[in-house]
Structure formats: structure tokens, C-alpha cells
Amino acid sequence: MSLVYELASLAAAKTARFVQNLSRKKAQPRVAVVCYGPNRNQKITIHFPKKRRFKPVVLYWNGGGFLCSGNDDRAAAKRFNRLGWVFISCGCRHMPLHPFPAQIEDVFLATEAALGFMRETGLGKEIICAGNSAGALLAANVALNSEKREEFSLDAVVKGLLLVGGILDAGHFFSRMSPVRRGVISAISRADTDDFLAFSPIELIDEETDVPTLSVHGKYDHLAPYANAMRFVRKLNGITGRRLGSMIEIDDAAYRHFRLIHGLWLENPAKSRIQREIFRWLDTLE
Questions:
Q1: Helix, strand, coil in percent for the chain, rounding step 5
Q2: 146-180 pLDDT, tens per residue?
Q3: Closest CA relative to residue 254, chosen from 219, 212, 211, 286
Q4: Mean pLDDT across the chain, nearest whole number?
Q5: Which class is domain 31-283?
Q6: If we measure between CA atoms, which residue out of 214, 97, 108 comes closest to residue 160?
Q7: I need a surface site. Which of 7, 231, 240, 272 has the fewest CB within 10 A?
């Protein structure tokens, strides 16, 4: 009788363990939201992995030309979480209701909020700044704009900068536009193009820059030209005298601007060469 009881107990234990493991597999990563201002877009969303494997926390800014927010941060968060990264998606106010450079102020307020959350939850202060398109310009300011970091008293340790289809040389970006298009952007942003140049990532590089940077850019990008990224990386490596900057060049006509920034993190990780190279680079930052 005792043998039957033991066998039944063993079977029940195994069943309970199987159900528990199954529920764990179905469980979604934990998510927390912290607001840093009254506007609905002034918030950070923290995505936790099931098990943290990497110390630096990824701070990510969407593109959208400062006019809207895409959903690519959710796909990116899912991919980073699966590999053990804490991922923080940072929002900012949008034009035209909030003229540029309100977005620059928000990027530092968001980083301040993220660091406060990290400090309170024991996540440390090491970060990797990442962003796509216009969001890459914001991420680059956090990593490279030492003057603004000092203004906000940010004590973050920036381990790396990941830029996907980024607007990295605003002067070159606007020089390729027609006067009509530049006028439209100035009207929407309620700012002159010179206001953007002050926060252009390429203008933030100096001899003291020491942040490893990876730029992912398509050679057929119709919005943010490939030369935009090349000019940035060449200046970064030239002025610092170190090979801080590297590139993933995408020689595929299918990867135009929106295909890259909205489709990259939706790709099958097992088949995505770009994702593999990105995470291989991230591994070198540890």
C-alpha cells in the first residue's frame, strides 16, 4: 500500500512540476511604467527578462521624426528580454504641439528617471543607449553630449551606443533636402534647421569621446542616407584616434529606411544576420 502511495505521490509531484514549468513558459516578462512629466508620452517603460544575464541596462528611443512613436520598441524589448537584458523604452513629447528641442529635454529627463529607477531597484548605473532614425539622434545625445549630462547631473556609465538607421549628421541630412521640404520641417517643428544642428550627433564628437558605437545602416536608405552614418563613424574614429565606431552595412535594396527601423526586431532571430551581428557586438561591451 505504501508503495502505491509513493508512486501516486511521485506522479502527482511530476504533474505539478510540469504544470508549473508550463505556466512559467507562458508567463510574460514583467513590465513597469514610470512617468517623468505630465504629458502622456513622458514616460519610460521597463521590460524585465525572466532572468537577467547582462549588467548594462538598454535605454531605447523610437524613431518617428519626433512626430509619433512606433511599436518597434516592443519587438526590440522582447528580443532583448529573451537574451537576458533589462530593456527600458523611453518616450518623449511630440511635435508640433511641443516644438524642438523639447525632445532633447525629454531625453535627459527620461534618462534621469531611468537611472533613478535603476538605483532604487539595484540595477546599477551602467547603460547602453540605443535608438533608430530620429531616436538614434536622441540616444547619441545621452551618450555623447557631456554638457547636457552634466547639466542634469547624470552619473550613468555609458557602455555603448547602438544606432539603427540613425540621423547622425543633421547638416548632411538637411543639405540633401529641397528648400520646400526644409520649410515644411521648420514649420512643423517650429524650429530652424540650425536648432537641429546644435544637437547633431556628429557635432558632439571630440577628443574626449570614449563610447564604443555601432551604426546599422542600409546602403539604399532613402530617408537617412548611408553617407550620413559613414561620415559619423569616420569622424568618431578619426578625431579620437581609436576605433570606437563600427558599422553593419546592409547592401540589400529591400532594407530601405522604414523596412530597417520597423522590421529589424520582427525578423526571425535564427535567420537574421543583422541581429546576430548586433548581439555579437553587444557581447564585447561586457
A1: 45, 15, 35
A2: 999 999 999 999 999 999 999 999 888 887 777 87
A3: 219
A4: 87
A5: alpha beta
A6: 214
A7: 7
